Amino acid sequence: MQRLIKLAIVGLLLAGTTACGFHLRGNQSLPPSVNYVAVSSSQAHAPLARALKKRLDVYDIDGGTLADSTSPEHSVMIHIMPEQLERRLLSVFASGQVAEYELIYGVRYQVIFPGKQPLNAYFEVLRDYQDDPDLVLAKSRELDLVLSEMRQEAADNIIRRLSGHANDALAK
Questions:
Q1: Which among 93, 87, 114, 95 is positioned nearest to 31, based on CA atoms?
Q2: Is the pLDDT confidence value at 6 over 90?
Q3: How many Cα atoms occupy the beta-carbon half-sphere of 122 within 13 Å?
Q4: Domains and CATH numbers, the chain
Q5: pLDDT tens-digit profile of 10-34?
Q6: Exposed, middle or buried: residue 134 (CB in 10 Å: 0-12, 13-18, 19+)?
Q7: 109: β partners
């Protein structure tokens, strides 16, 4: 009897969450007419384009290059512009050397849905980075890791925004 009550409660909770429109964060909904996401970039072998192709697999979205697409007329095209990395000074040591930066990773890209006008987008990913002049080699490796994480976050952000871009493109 208790098992039946627990199942009924779980069923009601599931029905309530689906009725309010809840869906898992990784479950990105694309229009049914889109069956492939093609990724290109202004620079050959751009790190963000590579990261985006890897993240499409994580989200179970069929993607790659336009040449790999079986039906280019139903493919969404994401064109990555050159990445921008800026450093903003946050603090200095007593000696006057830089102690901490804010890294600003700017991402500019264009989404082209079949038969629609291109949509341009821009966003920034921010990180604080502490510099230590005594540990140059270790800090160089750490900076590479931070940039890699920022690219992965940017790729996730592009995929999350893709559903919103689809709604914008269909509204026009």
A1: 114
A2: no
A3: 7
A4: 2-171 (3.30.160.150)
A5: 877 777 776 665 555 545 556 666 6
A6: exposed
A7: 80, 121
Where helices occur in 77-135 by DSSP H, the ranges are none
Distance CA 162, CA 166 (A): 6
Check: CB of residue 131 under 8 Å from CB of residue 96: no
Cβ neighbour number for residue 153 with a 10 Å cutoff: 17
CA distance 93 to 35: 53
Q: Which two tokens stand for residue 99?
A: 């102690």
Q: Which of 127, 55, 120, 116 is nearest to 86 (CA)?
A: 127
**CB count in 10 Å sphere of residue 111:** 22
Residue recorded with tokens 């990105």: 28
Smallest CA-to-CA distance from 149 within 110, 114, 105, 118 is with: 105
pLDDT in tens, 85-126: 999 988 888 887 878 889 999 999 999 888 888 899 999 999
